[in-house]
């Protein structure tokens, strides 16, 4: 299977990543330090690199603008699973601003060179150019803005596929989270091959406190370790619906739980992929995104908080992000008559 480098970005992305790697170790009979508990069982080589003495190291990078979350992981029992060079951080957070996370020169001075070096080192250890998984939120400045920066770098330097696990913010997460979300979505449309949407607000009402990371990780582990797993090749000229914006259904404590709010108007499924415990659907208008876009448009029409939020940015980026998000949703609506495809890429 194609080797894959996983980059966890921001507080949310790294919390998901920590749970994901913990679950991968359990699934593969590894200790949390990466040592094999049963030498006859090997973890998936596309996710782990084998080193000496039956020790396996994740093909992973942990990135954040603020060092706090990474320090918590480094000081936990999971900390020794990753080499010190895997931890890359700025000296302070992005202040809930997409612009700070994406363009702040002080932040980029600290993270750009080590990030590029780590990606290059991972790529050189792979038999072919690796694919990439990005775990992040869209509500915060780092999860939206720094993820956009990473996507731009990957697009420029590697002709490969990128999968995003993107967490949409709760309505009351932060007053400027709709700005961050739609600005970040603009870069997902531009550069990502496939996006799994996780709606934090929608799931908070359905799952217990602290369960969302476990729920998300269970899906990711099941998908990435499945023989059916693939990331569609990015095609800049493809129709927007071929960018593969997915929601999921998975069995959780005896119930089927959907990852986000989707259309209740009977929109047809454009694509379905069955991983057993989890199914991915590329279908209809993802209502969670539409809700964020409605909030974005209402705020931007009034220019609410734009002055403080638009540091390092031009207001044209807001206009472009809104236009592209509207176009994405409109094209999805027109695809309701598309033919169902199962377990294969739309060509």
UniProtKB/TrEMBL annotation:
The keyword Coiled coil does not apply. GO terms for molecular function: GTP binding. GO terms for biological process: microtubule-based process. Keywords: GTP-binding, Microtubule, Nucleotide-binding. GO terms for cellular component: microtubule. Residues 45-226 form the Tubulin/FtsZ GTPase domain. SMART domains: Tubulin. InterPro entries: Epsilon_tubulin, Tub_FtsZ_C, Tubulin, Tubulin/FtsZ_GTPase_sf, Tubulin_C, Tubulin_CS, Tubulin_FtsZ_GTPase. It comes from the Eukaryota. Belongs to the tubulin family. PANTHER family: TUBULIN (PTHR11588). This is Beta-tubulin 2. It comes from Hexamita inflata.
